[in-house]
């Protein structure tokens, strides 16, 4: 039997002993030597003013959302909040570059991206409030559950995009991950699968400088995280993560490329986590204030505002208007989060399996009895039922 | 269970000897033919047909997109299957060997087992993870683990394991059709076991979660599953010479666990031995013994005993016969079931 006759021969390439050439030409895959920028560069001339204004309004809203969510932890209304303050350009752009039929795969820090995609902020924050795990139907919004085990959402995005492509559906998956997450095995496996399958996926790394306390230098020796793409045979793009116009453009191009059937792209956005890892973390233990101060000068909201005001696209009244809209969003969120969520303990047993096992039925009955006794006690005092 | 005697159109069918491996392959084929959302993926499952040849012919019949040779990365395979299931497919993942399923544990524990729960029932994952497991085939290191205890201890997973050719077909069909994730453990030393079986009219199978009495008896109950069933059946035959008439229960599914069938049997016989080759400490036998004691205490004439693999890493092939529970160890345990009133 010759190679051509073998089943599966199409995918099989014999290794030629004498001549060697690379499987993929690495040159076009390499990222730019410096993060790509639009704001304050010549490239801004091509930017759509309406898009810039939309980005501005969303950034202001996003900044306010982060502040409100952090405040809710102090009032005991959220168990914990990992803020994306300083990273709003990435969060907003990730949401805006997708069509409704596309899928977003957020990490645990990316509630803002989900909200910017149109998800009700209360539903986005439900996990962090703690009354249930996922506050929304992922299929309804095409937003995967917020993912806490680092990088594990990345192969899901690949599988989903692959399935959509097999069905002939025009669907792109955009998966978000942090710099720390790129060290996980699932990051490697997902990128490799995506490249081999030519899956319509965009891997979006927010390099915010830290994985909790660990700086990037302890995470990787690669030239940049974007360079990792080359090893998988996909293009890597490096972008200034605080330049909303640049992030939007680079992600849009990656999404368009995926849509054209040309396969996945790895985008690294260089940004900075302005707050501690979460409200429960103390960032002074591992970084100096001067670093944080330096990044303030490169704040995504300020960068965009400066550009827009210099070009006469935005004035003080416009800024005020954006702030007022954000304030209204925050007030509504605050009010709704101040209502106690309704707890449904019996639901603990409802969604373990399609059908409850006999063991779960027994355990549910035991909890039911405990709850009834509690209620009896509350209504009739300690002597009730004795 | 008896083999059906007629085809769908009423013609009589002659059952012919078939191996468990063939029945498993046929179950995959029939599931794929019936449901276009069923996709098989794994290492070497396409062109080669899998290292145990269970997926032989599937890529040829259904194409590479339905039976896919993936890159070599178990977490990636299972993680991709999660995404495929999120999009409405019904993936069947093949892990090449028990010990090589470990890289996929995070995906299994954190996502596959929990997704239905995490999403309040909105996004169940109908994934079947096929894992060849257990020893007795002369495999070198890392090819003979009994990993069922890890899966059993993870709420959200079904854990199913066939011991007969009929069940291999029926339980795999049921597992693939299930809207819950199923870890389908294939006893690899029974892959080549044979029984009369007719692929045109395979026996109907009960829904997963039901144990079955393979051999009725009155003296004591042997409770077992998968690779240890033939050992127990042989032990039951040998026990007749000692005057013991042993009942043998084949669990077929560790999760859900069929308390009813097990307890009914032990109440009848008053004595029980759990037999499996996975290590005893922290193994399935402890859970099963506890469940029996909780339900049948007043019917028990003796403590529930366990015959299990030693609490050691799986031994090298030339020593594995000392590790695997055999007929003699089962009979020794039966002998220790306090038959004398004063013992
Ligand atoms: C598999 C896994 N290991 C450890 C953790 C605990 N953990 C949560 S966030 C985090 C740091 C993540 O850093 P990075 O990926 O850079 O994302 P960022 O927090 O900066 O958004 C760690 C270690 C986890 N969630 N998952
Ligand atoms: Mg980080």
TrEMBL record, chain B:
SMART domains cross-referenced by the UniProt entry: Transket_pyr
Keywords, sorted A to Z: Oxidoreductase
InterPro entries: THDP-binding, Transketo_C/PFOR_II, Transketolase-like_Pyr-bd, Transketolase_C
Cofactor requirement: thiamine diphosphate
Leader sequence segment: none
SUPFAM superfamilies found in the cross-reference section: Thiamin diphosphate-binding fold (THDP-binding), TK C-terminal domain-like
Stretches assigned to the Transketolase-like pyrimidine-binding domain: 18-193
EC code: 1.2.4.4
Annotated coiled-coil segments of the chain: none
The keyword Oxidoreductase is assigned to this record: yes
Name the record gives this protein: 3-methyl-2-oxobutanoate dehydrogenase (2-methylpropanoyl-transferring)
Species, as recorded: Streptomyces sindenensis
